[in-house]
Design brief:
The complex is a heterodimer of chains A (765) and B (136). By secondary structure, chain A is mainly alpha-helical. Chain A has helices at 2-18, 26-42, 45-49, 74-97, 104-123, 127-145, 152-183, 188-193, 195-200, 204-218, 227-230, 236-244, 249-262, 266-287, 293-314, 317-348, 364-378, 384-397, 403-425, 445-463, 469-479, 496-514, 519-526, 533-555, 560-582, 597-615, 619-639, 643-664, 676-702, 708-721, 726-734, 736-764; strands spanning 54-61, 66-72. Among the domains of chain A are: 290-298 and 317-517, no CATH class; 520-556; 557-706, no CATH class; 707-765, no CATH class. Chain A is elongated, with a radius of gyration of 35 Å. Chain B has helices at residues 4-27, 35-53, 55-62, 69-86, 109-135. Classes of the chains: A mainly alpha (765), B mainly alpha (136).
């Protein structure tokens, strides 16, 4: 199991480094991975259906309670099969779609990385491990969405997706840590065991808030939904993968997984119903106004995700069953529709629904695939979608909130969804032949095989839904104690649910016949765009950008003098504040020695050097005077018995002066301060800093000092380290580690200087 | 800078300063000195030569580019820290030879660590100075 999860990461790395060696064979070779994993997970199916759960554990960081715990139950298996099964089709399809793309190895590497993270996410039994994989999906999807990194829109939308889902991830982490600290364990199984304790806890509402933020941002629920339409900038196979079976379903998975831990509480259920219900209606409504095929699919995806949240919120056994079945239904038809769209886009060069028609004459297999997917999405009888739709109405009709309201909500959303399904899956293929200006190419087998398999799969399961019995029952059993065994069937009898289902189909078809997509309606809806959360997000981002720019141009303007002024000013403020509050100044210590002639001489030399620096007109003179000050400090060191310091100071001063002289000729003309106010400002700052440092020095003398550390070194230098020079013994022995790191830092500094200057000079050439 | 006095002085100063820097390096464990100061003094020796004879001649004198000395020094310091690990002691434990050597005195891994520091300091200082004097 560990190998199965980590294989994606391993292969991703291998592909990135050695992928080019495989050349054109690469996609087919890599496709072995998801196919093999699919078969591997399929081998667990009989056991899981039999009610077993497989548990695999490898210690990782036992001291923190983080272990590589993987648990395969019905829910995990459902997702694993979707991830690897649809993944395999996507891998094959991408071969045809990205034929001979320059960075095909990178693409497959990201795809493997993403698949591995998704598998880890749905299999983790450890909350922190789950979070790690959660973040990994965000990171790998960032690469996938921004794969066309030449286009600015693509980069922008991948950043947006990452910002939203990554931001949600922060909250999720907080929530999981809270959960872990309440239950004392990060194992999700053990958390469910203490579910009652959590729901009684005063932090329950906060935990819900954080977990919901994580799940809603990932699953693109209102008001975080806007990253998903943006993510359509990705290559179409990526959109198909991310938005049908994987990335966005992660939030659904999280909610389903934590239902036994946090669920069955009025806060939990009502939030999910309200947010999910609103998202489902809002985005289903939005979807029908789009003209871009992928735009339609994006909004209908969000709407379907809303429906899943809504179903999970209903909290009944039949609702969970409906959700689990609908996850499968949606994965099948949405992946099929996306891949169909991708092929259309590739062979006609447009995704605008207004210009696409009559393509069945050129690409019949694709037309069949698209139609099958659209029919399943609309819930026409004999498709898998019909089974799913019946279950949804079943769940809403028998809910305690009353039959009419919820069912009405579901029916309206489903009508709109079926309309957008027709638009995406059928509209391009019927009607008059396409405009001659569209140069339509006949797509190859690889471009219609995958969507056709998906469409056919939807029908096969639809005709004999008993195939899905075992898995959906096991998946529901992972969420809730199961009361009655699941038996999916085509015919539920003639009842209210059937009427609702037929109503959906009929109104959907009528809508499709009457309403034609047009630009006017798109512009109508974009008029209220300024109210949308996306705009709010953009304004916030623009505000941060502006603030950052102002801050940077003030704080980091590139003038050394301005940096020094700010640093000194800040230190003066901090130190003065501290001294004023905590230190009794002005108590001059009485153990000061009197000033000797030597000291007075050195002092006078220093003072006159400083005056020369301040008033000289020549830079050379100022530099020499500056080094005079340094040498005088050396003398002080010598005088007070610090020969090591003196030697170092002396050498450094020499080298600095040489360096200064070397660059002297290249510096801009010597600046003579004319501005009186600037002079006063700098003078005041320097004076206050000097005063403060003197006060601190005096204060240090007055404070009783602890000489324990220096005494230890002095006593042990020879005993432990056989050295008599304490300073050097500290450097090479007692604190040898520090020194090692210091010389490493020196090296980095040298590399920095070297590379910066070399790059600069090569640019000039 | 075509100054005869400086040129002749540099010729004699270079070996003297280098010798002095090694002297400082070796005595470090007992009296003021050590790898850091020694390295700085050795750099000064080359800088004096650089000022008198120019960059090209100094480079020839050094044989290898100055940044070559950095990894060598880092490596020596690291190995001196790793050696005790083979004998089961923690990283960077100082080991000593039993008998003192003539002239140098007692020799331990600390000395090699210091030699590493010495070389890194020479490498870093000269890399920075050479690069800057080349590019201005």
């Amino acid at each position: 199991m560990l190998i199965a999860v980590l294989s994606g990461f391993l292969i991703a790395f291998v592909l990135l480094v050695f992928g080019r060696l495989l050349k054109d064979k690469l996609p087919l070779v890599v496709s072995v991975l998801p196919t093999g994993l699919f078969l591997y997970f399929l081998s667990f199916l009989p056991g899981v259906v039999g009610g077993e759960a497989y548990y695999f554990s490898t210690p990782w960081i036992p001291s923190l309670g983080v272990n590589l715990d993987f648990r395969l139950d019905g829910l995990s298996l459902l997702f694993s099969l979707l991830i690897t099964g649809i993944g395999a089709l996507i891998f094959f399809y991408s071969d045809a779609y990205l034929k001979r793309h320059r960075y095909i190895n990178r693409f497959y590497s990201f795809l493997c990385l993403f698949m591995g993270s998704m598998l880890g996410l749905v299999l983790s039994d450890n909350a922190l491990l789950l979070f790690v994989f959660w973040e990994l999906t965000a990171i790998s999807s960032f690469f996938l969405i921004g794969f066309n990194n030449q286009s600015q829109a693509s980069r922008r939308s991948s950043l947006l997706a990452w910002a939203i889902t990554g931001g949600g991830g922060f909250f999720l982490m907080a929530g999981l840590i809270l959960l872990g600290s309440i239950t004392g364990s990060f194992s999700i199984q053990e958390m469910s065991a203490s579910s009652g304790l959590i729901k009684e806890h005063s932090l329950y509402a906060l935990i819900l808030f954080t977990i919901f933020l994580g799940a809603f941002s990932k699953s693109a629920q209102f008001p975080f939904h806007f990253w998903l339409p943006g993510a359509m900038k990705a290559p179409t196979p990526v959109s198909a993968y991310l938005h049908s079976a994987t990335m966005v379903k992660a939030g659904i998975y999280l909610i389903a997984r934590f239902t036994p831990v946090l669920g069955d509480h009025v806060f939990w259920n009502n939030t999910l119903i309200v947010v999910g219900g609103f998202t489902m209606l809002y985005c289903a409504f939005h979807a029908i106004f789009r003209l871009d095929l992928k735009g339609i699919l994006a909004y209908s995806t969000i709407s379907a995700l809303g429906m899943l949240m809504f179903l999970l919120g209903l909290g009944t056994e039949s609702a969970y069953l409906a959700a689990m079945v609908f996850i499968g239904v949606h994965a099948f038809y949405k992946a099929g529709l996306f891949l169909t769209t991708g092929t259309i886009d590739l062979s006609t060069g447009t995704r605008d629904i207004r210009y696409l028609s009559g393509l069945r004459r050129i690409m019949l297999p694709l037309a069949v695939a698209g139609t099958l997917a659209a029919l399943s999405s609309a819930g026409i009888p004999l498709t898998f979608g019909f089974v799913g739709k019946e279950l949804i109405y079943e769940a809403t009709w028998h809910h305690e909130w009353g039959m009419w309201g919820l069912t009405f909500l579901a029916v309206v959303s489903n009508i709109l969804l079926s309309y957008s399904g027709y638009l995406a899956g059928i509209k391009p293929f019927i009607g008059p032949p396409p405009d001659i200006s569209l140069e339509v190419e006949k797509p190859g087998t690889g471009l219609w095989m995958a969507p056709l398999i998906l469409g056919a799969g939807g029908v096969i399961v639809g005709v004999s839904p008993a195939f899905a019995n075992g898995l959906s029952e096991a998946a529901v059993a992972a969420i809730v104690e199961i009361q009655s065994p699941v038996s999916l069937s085509l015919w539920h009898g003639f009842n209210e649910v059937f009427i609702a289902s037929m109503l959906t189909v009929v109104i959907g078809v009528v809508l499709f016949m009457i309403v034609k997509p047009s630009e006017i309606r798109l512009s109508t809806i974009s008029r209220v765009d300024f109210l949308s959360p996306h705009q709010l997000f953009n304004h916030t981002a623009a505000f941060f950008k502006r603030t950052a720019r102002t801050y940077t141009s003030f704080m980091h303007n590139g003038f050394l003098r301005s940096y020094i002024t700010k640093i000194v000013f800040f230190s003066v403020c901090l130190l003065a504040y501290y001294m004023a509050r905590n230190v009794q100044v002005l108590a001059l210590p009485n153990n000061l020695t009197s000033v000797s002639v030597y000291e007075a001489c050195i002092f006078i030399v220093m003072l006159s050097s400083i005056l020369i620096i301040l008033f000289s007109n020549s830079r050379l003179l100022a530099v020499i005077a500056m080094s005079m000050v340094g040498f005088c400090i050396c003398l002080f060191f010598v005088y007070y018995g610090a020969p090591d310091l003196a030697m170092t100071q002396f050498s450094i001063d020499t080298l600095t002066t040489v360096l200064f002289v070397m660059v002297l000729l290249k510096l801009p003309p010597y600046l003579k301060m004319k501005d009186r106010s600037a002079q006063i400002r700098d003078g005041l700052l320097a004076a206050s800093f000097g005063l403060l440092v003197s006060l601190i020095a005096l204060q240090v003398l007055a404070e009783p000092t602890s000489k324990e550390v220096s005494r230890f070194y002095a006593e042990n230098a020879y005993l432990l380290a056989k050295g008599k020079n304490v300073v050097n013994v500290i450097l090479v022995d007692f604190r040898g580690y520090d020194t090692l790191v210091e010389i490493t830092v020196l090296t980095i500094a040298a590399i920095g200087v070297y590379s910066m200057l070399k790059i600069n000079s090569s640019e000039v050439e | 800078m075509n100054v005869f006095l400086l040129k002749s002085a540099a010729k004699y100063l270079l070996p003297l300063l280098l010798l002095f820097s090694i002297f400082i390096l070796l005595r470090g464990h007992y009296v003021p000195g050590g790898g850091f100061v020694g390295g700085l003094i050795a750099s000064i020796a080359f800088v004096v030569y650089l000022l008198a004879h120019g960059l090209d001649k100094t480079k020839i004198l050094l044989k290898y580019p100055p940044f070559f000395y950095i990894p060598v020094g880092l490596g020596i310091a690291l190995i001196s820290g790793l050696v005790p690990m083979f004998l089961g002691e923690p990283f960077l434990t100082v080991l000593w030879f039993e008998d003192p050597f003539p002239v140098v005195g007692s020799v331990g891994t600390a000395l090699f660590f210091d030699i590493g520091v010495y070389l890194v300091v020479i490498g870093v200082t000269l890399t920075i100075l050479f690069t800057i004097s080349e590019n201005v």
